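Closing statement on the S-adenosylmethionine sub-project.
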Amino acid sequence: MPSKKRKRVAERGTIHPRNKYSEKPPDFGALASLYPSFEPYVFYSSKDGRPRIDWTDYNATRELTRVLLLHDHGLNWWIPDGQLCPTVPNRSNYIHWIEDLLASDIILNTRIDDNVVKGFDIGTGANCIYPLLGASLLGWRFVGSDITDVALEWAERNVRSNPHISELIEIRKVHTREKNPEEEDVHAEQGPDSDDSGGSSNRGVAEIGPSCLPSAKLQSSAQKKYQAPPILLGVVKDEEKFDFCMCNPPFFETMEEAGLNPKTACGGTKEEMVCPGGEQAFIARIIEDSVQLKQCFRWYTSMIGRKSNLKFLIAKLREVGVTVVKTTEFVQGQTCRWGLAWSFVPPSGKILSSQVSESNNKSFMLEGVQRQYSAFHVLQSAESFFCSSGTSCKLDSIQFKIDVIASKDQCESMLTSETEPYGALSYQHNLEMPDVSNQLDSQSIDLHFSISVFQQIPGTLLVKGTLQQKGNPNAGAFSLVFSKLEAVLKAKFCKPKPIAELSRSKQQR
Ligand SMILES: C[S@@+](CC[C@H](N)C(=O)[O-])C[C@H]1O[C@@H](n2cnc3c(N)ncnc32)[C@H](O)[C@@H]1O
């Protein structure tokens, strides 16, 4: 059992240091005594006596969000049954990451208004969480867009319930093209000079058709590739400029894929969770829009649910010639998401294109994992892998994490051990380990690292490794050990790929 202190340190590492909850997580007991509506959802664990809620109860998670927004942010908030319920600490991390991007000098300072930050929240949802947090925490202005009536109505209600910030937030309706094709044609023909956008008042729901930027021709070619409502192009108005856009996209292609985490109940309707092509298509479309809109936004950003999509999208960004790419990880409990940011504003220094990747953090996906195996099985196998070389290895079954301390000899032993030949064909390339002797520094400083396993969607797990010591001369050895672990776990848990697919990927290498 990990000590309380160790556990707190581990939790702190996953939350932004400026997040209200980074030092002190919400105290359910105190909240229950202050808010009678929350009290029925709080119970005391028979194990450690700590106050808890049932994360699989939608009403409990929604009430928690309501009281956290009220108690810690002074916000009045509600959503109707079934609508996606945001977790406040998690959503705050994204806001603070954007705050860091804006404060950095990675790109030239081309801001039009130094006093007010202006953001665009793509798909603000009924919960309108990002504009509410951004406006209340940092005084930012927002346009929040959405396509569904329920999202627009409730986002608007949530804004109106908070008169102290309501002037800062505009909720903007995006027309779904399929519903009104004739009207869309007229807009397209009118081109960039027309202004029939519904005159977006700063309050109220402004209806925006695909009218303005930058030309009807470009817009229609983008539409051919992506048969769905507009996202930025045609929603952003002429002359509008923003410091950033943000997006928590519909991650999934189907509702089956979305029903992934039986441990939490955050709700989420099909309209919120699903879009054709899933998040990859949705964000690819934002990238295409950004190529047209270029410096209308200083930073384009999106949240991403699957690491494999992150790789695809970074490759796409490099193709379209952005000046900067940045990524981050948002980890909360068993959920891991990524943030992707890019810009067309020239870099301020010599950086031409940078993907921030800390070499102390490594990760890989286990895809095609057979149903009988859970994240815990994977964790146990990782533990056996390390223990078999005699390392000191502690498994924390609450955080799904192992802490490992390995000496130089133990690293050598891991790297030279044989990997089971299961699925050998599929993983041959992973077993090609380089010569390790010169990667292990002769001073022989122990490696101290942790391994965590996260469920992504059924059949897909994420394994993360974090080297605890900075500036360790044996960091290269950590890379090798982690690659070896990848080979071992893939050999054990992933279904072998069909032969045809294998020979195709061999030819490509
Ligand atoms: C996953 S929800 C995110 C809601 C909220 N931002 C949050 O973080 O909880 C995705 C939202 O995107 C909206 N959406 C889907 N397509 C859209 C589009 N083309 N433009 C704007 N919003 C869209 C959906 O209606 C839904 O409300």
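The pocket of S-adenosylmethionine is lined by residues 84, 86, 122-125, 127, 129-130, 145-148, 151, 174, 229, 231, 248, 250, 271-272, 275 (CB under 6 Å). With this model delivered, the sub-project is considered complete and its resources will be redirected to Aim 3.
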